[in-house]
Amino acid sequence: MSDMSLHETVAETEYEAQMGDYFALLKPRVMSLVVFTALVGLIVAPVGVHPFIGFVAILCIAVGAGASGALNMWWDADIDARMRRTAKRPIPDGRVKPGEALGIGMALSGFSIVLLALATNFVAAGLLAFTIFFYAVVYSMWLKRATPQNIVIGGAAGSFPPMIGWAVATGGVGIESILMFALIFMWTPPHFWALALFVKTDYGDAGVPMLTETHGRRSTRNHVLAYCLPLVAVAIGLGFTSIGGWVYLTVAVFFNAWFLKGCYDIWRRDEAQAEADKYKVEIQTFKVSLYYLFAHFGALLIEAALRSGGL
């Protein structure tokens, strides 16, 4: 074997993707939230679903979310390579080729949509198809690099799973599923922008117009409170629908009072105060936001369990 052929063999071995590299394309951490909220939407629906059909549906939703992640990584490979937080993702790190990511994303998209349609109904499959399209095309390819409201738009894609789960069971959309969608949608901006205030990002260097850099930190603080106010209304309102109850309302009142207080404190502070205590309020509010969705959707599960037990 010549030196040249040996070198080519070694190079091919170095860049041969592993299963873990392909799995990383699917953004498994994001997928876990998708699965949880979709499962809640399915369970709290007024129509029961056979456990096997429910399993297949949740699997399809998870695979669809993973497909969105792969397509997003394929399109954003250029900016991922310029940011410290994302430079080690499979494509910019050279472990997966862009064409492979595109192929995986397209194949998993088609598989998840078709299987969900066959296993459940066309409403649920249509919502899943729209979610993938919205995240991969409307958000990733169009608006992420065009507007500082990109996190709001991207958050919409992550808000559809409970609505899809509801549609799997009912074959349609109800006020309950719309409010579950709105809960995640309104939570995303204050959650992310609270983080952005105390974590330095390199989105600006990558050409992504994040609010903290395009409009400044004072404007970001205003936006945190502006989105938190309707979030509180949505969260409390959900408690007065057919899937709410005293357990959910107790949790919602507690967490929304806690989160609103944090967002208000973020709004009334300036950068000098934040730097003086090393962004203590911003960090605490972000930590509250991490538990916020889990607490609300967990309370909805408890309400469903109580109703099934006749309580």
Automatic annotation (TrEMBL):
UniProt gene name: cyoE
Subunit (UniProt): Interacts with CtaA.
Catalytic activity of the protein: heme b + (2E,6E)-farnesyl diphosphate + H2O = Fe(II)-heme o + diphosphate
Its biological purpose: Converts heme B (protoheme IX) to heme O by substitution of the vinyl group on carbon 2 of heme B porphyrin ring with a hydroxyethyl farnesyl side group.
Keyword line: Cell membrane, Heme biosynthesis, Membrane, Transferase, Transmembrane, Transmembrane helix
Lineage summary: Bacteria, Pseudomonadati, Pseudomonadota, Alphaproteobacteria, Rhodobacterales
Transmembrane segments: 30-49, 55-75, 96-116, 122-142, 224-240, 246-267, 288-306
Record-given protein name: Protoheme IX farnesyltransferase
Family: Belongs to the UbiA prenyltransferase family. Protoheme IX farnesyltransferase subfamily.
Pathway field: Porphyrin-containing compound metabolism; heme O biosynthesis; heme O from protoheme: step 1/1
Domain of life per record: Bacteria
EC identifiers of the protein: 2.5.1.141
Bilayer topology annotation: Multi-pass membrane protein
Chief location bin: membrane
Name of the top EC class for this enzyme: transferase
UniProt subcellular location: Cell membrane
Gene3D superfamilies the UniProt entry points to: UbiA prenyltransferase
General remark: Carbon 2 of the heme B porphyrin ring is defined according to the Fischer nomenclature.
